[in-house]
Design a protein that fits this description.
single chain, about 500 residues, alpha+beta, five-stranded mixed sheet, three-stranded antiparallel sheet, binds protoporphyrin IX containing FE, Cyt_P450_E_grp-I, monooxygenase activity
């Protein structure tokens, strides 16, 4: 068909072209404005910003691009470490964000401050998953956080850790049975998974009295499949929250999957809260005191659900990833494994003789745990805080600046640890060793230090000692390069760690 010369073709006619050019003029104007303001922002960040004199990669000082480029690849901790090596102990990671990498900075950033405190920042709202009340982990207000920690002080005490020992013993026995029954094969067992099962089973049982039962079912509880991937999105959101214009836009994007996951997690936490509230009287779990306060009306149910969510994550994940890193390093260094075997097998006649009190006194066992967590800290990037406008490490850090210590950088720094990439438990017990041990802080430090630290040492000591006592463990070839495959998106994303378990020939129990 022939189109007449002056017919109006919708995509080619005069009237539409006029409209199009009007719109395109507007678009161009908006684009020009955006470009001009971005350039203006970059110039400001580089030459006028209060942090302009702090070194760092050019892209990081001027924009968010350095952060965006490297943060999502899984090796963020290594990029930050490299930048520290090049630019020094304090670097600008993005225009309004400082990373510190000296041993002393741990106290300066996280310790008790004289003036206005350095508190948790907005990042922790995401970790709190949008409950209406902040939890022991997500509360940002300094004084409220202290009150919320007090609710669980008794549960986290030495006395309560000792009271929970029978629960721990029962779960370790079940775990060992599984290793024995399933682990003596060519493929062995993926210990990253099994430590997660153990960590979450024992964590949930101790926290609110109901175990996930992953060990019994030999598979993950739905919670794990929902919560752990969520932290990948937290990592993405942590980038985008820095662009004020994008935040309201993001809320418009229909993210059904994400909302569904969040909804399920919140519902689970609330259901467990309701169930736990029905069990009144001492239950010997973390929530005895909190339940009492809810019943007296001092604490809301929403707050209790928010605590319950935090404990469900905090008590399992960090413990599991720490144990995976510890076991890898131990088995990749057979002479260290043998040394630990000698200590543990020499100290007890049977696994039934082992208790937390004596295990905590075995020097080599404790050194193995500390060295494993130095090389493979559960949270390798910084634990973010916000400056109230204060001096940190001799620098005035303006109010609103994000600050943290990069854990990986300090615990792998040659100035603090000789041979930092070598697994040497001896450095923790040798009185002549000059290493600066305070540079490794896998549990954090100060008022927000991990309250589960004692419990974590108790659990890891019992679990590792009984494994070493009962089995001859072998790292399978497929897992030799495990270290290089580990990535971080706030928490670790680890490749399989396949280990074969053979019963020790002359086991005594
Ligand atoms: C090896 C095991 C563990 C490691 C490496 C670890 C590490 C950490 C780290 C690095 C923090 C953040 C501290 C901060 O922001 O300054 C933390 C917080 C926390 N951990 Fe642990 N943790 C472990 C086990 C546990 C256990 C077993 C529990 C529960 C009993 C627990 C409960 C918590 C809670 C509730 C918080 C939040 C504290 C607050 O914000 O005030 N953790 N942990």
């Amino acid at each position: 068909m022939e189109i007449p010369q002056n017919a109006s073709v919708p995509w080619h006619g005069e009237p539409l072209q006029e409209g199009h050019s009007g719109a395109s003029l507007l678009l161009r104007a908006v684009l020009a404005l955006l470009v001009a303001s971005s350039i203006g922002q970059v110039v400001y960040n580089l030459y006028l910003h209060p942090l302009k004199d702090i070194p760092g990669p050019l892209l990081a000082r001027g924009s968010l691009l350095w952060r965006f480029r490297y943060c999502m690849g899984g090796h963020w901790h290594l990029h930050i470490q490299k930048a520290h090596k090049r630019y020094g102990d304090v670097i600008r990671v993005s225009p309004n964000e400082l990373s510190f990498a000296s041993a002393k900075a741990w106290k300066s950033v996280y310790g008790i401050q004289k003036g206005a405190p350095i508190t948790k920042n907005e990042f922790w709202d995401m970790i709190g998953l949008g409950f209406d009340e902040g939890s022991i982990g997500s509360e940002r207000d300094y004084h409220l956080a202290a009150q919320k920690r007090d609710l669980f002080a008794d549960a986290m005490s030495n006395r309560n850790v000792a009271q929970q020992e029978p629960i721990l013993q029962a779960f370790v026995s079940l775990f060992l049975d599984k290793m024995g029954n399933l682990g003596d094969t060519k493929e062995g067992l993926d210990m990253g998974q099994w430590f997660l099962y153990f960590g979450f089973d024992v964590g949930t049982k101790m926290a609110f009295g109901e175990s996930f039962e992953c060990l019994v079912r030999e598979s993950a509880h739905e919670w794990l499949t929902l919560v752990l991937p969520l932290f990948f999105f937290v990592n993405i959101a942590d980038n985008f929250r820095r662009i004020p214009l994008v935040v309201p836009l993001l809320k418009l994007i229909p993210m059904g999957w994400l909302r569904g996951v969040r909804g399920k997690i919140v519902k689970y936490s609330k259901d467990q809260t309701a169930k736990r509230l029905l069990r009144s009287g001492p239950q010997n779990d973390f929530f005895d005191n909190c339940v009492d306060k809810v019943q007296k009306g001092d604490v809301s149910e929403e707050e209790m659900a928010s605590h319950l969510f935090t404990f469900s994550v905090a008590a399992g994940e960090t413990q599991a990833t720490s144990m995976t890193g510890i076991l890898y390093n131990l088995l990749a260094n057979p002479e260290k494994r043998d040394e630990l075997q000698r200590e543990v097998r020499g100290a007890y006649k049977s696994t039934h003789d082992m208790d937390v009190a004596t295990l905590l006194k075995l020097p080599y066992l404790q050194a193995v745990l500390k060295e494993g967590m130095r090389i493979h800290p559960a949270v390798p990037q910084g634990l973010p805080r916000v400056s109230p406008g204060t001096m940190i490490e001799g620098i005035y850090v303006p109010e609103g600046t994000e600050v943290y210590v990069s854990a990986w950088s300090t615990s792998h720094d040659e100035r603090y640890f000789h041979d930092p990439y070598t697994f040497k438990p001896e450095r923790w017990i040798d009185p002549t060793c000059q290493d600066v041990k305070e540079a490794s802080q896998p549990f954090g430090l100060g008022p927000r230090v991990c309250p589960g630290k004692r419990l974590a040492f108790a659990q890891m000591s019992m679990q590792l000692a009984k494994m070493v006592y009962t089995y001859d463990m072998e790292l399978l070839d497929s897992s030799r390069d495990w270290n290089y495959g580990c990535k971080t998106h706030y928490f670790w994303w680890m490749p399989p760690l396949n280990v074969r378990f053979r019963p020790r020939a002359n086991v005594g129990a």
